[in-house]
Amino acid sequence: MKFFNKKNALLSFSLGILLFFSFFLYLFTLQTYTQIEEFSVFIRQKFGRFYLWLGLICVLLLIILAISKWGKLKLGKVTDRPDFSRLAWISMLYSAGMGAGILLRAVQEPVFMMRNPPIQTSIDNTTIALEYTFYQWGFTAWAFYAIFAITIGYYLFVKSKKVLSSSAFSSLENFIPSTKAKKIIFGGIDILAILTTVFGLVAAIGLGTTQIEGGLNHVLKIDFGITGIILILTLISFLAFISVYRGVNKGIKIISTWNIYITIGLLLFVLFQSNIPAIFTQFFTATYHYIIDFIPLSIAYGAYNPGETFLTDWTYYYWAFWLAWAPFTGIFIARISKGRTLREIIIGVLLVPSLGTFFWFTTFGQSAFDIINDLGTYQDQFDNVFTSIFIFFENYPIQGFINTLTIILLISFLVTSLDSAIFVLSMFTDNGKQIPSKKHRILWSIILLIFSIGIILLGNAKEDINVLIAMQKLLIITSLPFSLLMVVMIILFIRDFKNNIKHK
């Protein structure tokens, strides 16, 4: 293919690095896992708290931006209008930014937090469980996405730069005298963004396909094993390719909207058969405590410090995961947000999805708490992250249909995450074009399938680990360089944005 040439060094270098790492994943799986495990310990010890502070700063910065006079400014020209309806816009950004994760953790995480309270305060364990779950899925996660979306959108639609991560650093050009040095530095930034995106995406795909396999095992009483996971992964990759090949309007938008409708249907199915007053009470109570406790939670201060072991296994991993998704999710959100004001984008990305996620976890979490109370003795039914939601639905009517629908929704969520990433990666490597060529979409579909299979093998390298454990360790490492780069990006954006306002 002609795009493998010196003119497209970004694509060549990125694929070379990914294929090189895939070589070790396939042929030296156990040794690779051991090295990842050792290095991740060092990263968590030295930079764990940095992740926490970065998350808090991103949230506070967005709040300040939204309530300031700058919030009225558009992402684009004054005459630009949004390309998508508000429902379609929110559906696409939510499907791309969260997706299958809310099914993976819907029951298992609140129950784990209830039985193992990470913090001890004056409120009961069920409220603490939901509050901490909100913390790990709420404002901070979406703040990482929103910061990147607004920053890259500003340079894309206001400054007319290319769809590349390095565009956010374009103001540094005047400080780099050598043309060759510019190419190396900006090329390195783009390669880093691509690698971070790929690692974050395949982590989600690996977890999601493993949950689908767990659901099929549970429903059909057949152990499909690693072969089944790879076959599921291949099917999802094929569907994602069809979607992204058709484009944003014909593929991604349709599937994303479909996802939201089914998700709301599942939510209402559980809600109307549960203790509705208790669910709404918990939702408002846990949300209130989450908001007033947000700052001490964000820096793990005093009574809100769950300890390094817990932070390592949960919060640091989550922050690394959201950071890994920030490049592709942020750029995708920017791509579909042209014509909207900064205030609308911040509210739409930071607040609306967070509140929706909170109500989701409250509905499933409180219902699971009630089921456990009715059982009398809990025998770890909801402890397995990959099967917990399917076991949960056994307590409701038409469980066979609901479990099948959940598996379909899982596949659909993964397809939208994958097709969004393929589209963004194709924009990156096709010279920053907003509508990348279909050749690049085909190529990234194949590469991501190959790399995802390697991640599945990594998650099965030892008997005492799974895909989740392997991804926790890997993402802690791969997200660090991008998180450091994000600090520079934020500083440059604030400076350039202020200067642009002054000269208008």
Low-pLDDT residue spans: none
Secondary structure category:
mainly alpha
Q: What is the count of distinct domains?
A: 1
> What level of helicity do the residues show?
over 70%
**CATH topology, anyone?**
Amino acid/polyamine transporter I
Radius of gyration: 22 Å
- Regarding quaternary structure, what we see is single chain
- Give the amount of beta strand, in percent: under 5%
Order of helices and strands: HHHHHHHHHHHHHHHHHHH
Q: Outline, from the CA principal axes? A: globular
Give the total of beta strands. 0
CATH architecture: Up-down Bundle
CATH C-level name: Mainly Alpha
Average residue-wise pLDDT: 85
Biggest β-sheet, characterized? none
Summed up, the helix count is 19
Give the CA-CA distance, first to last residue: 46 Å
Subcellular location: Cell membrane
Membrane topology: Multi-pass membrane protein
Protein name: BCCT family transporter
Organism: Aquimarina algicola
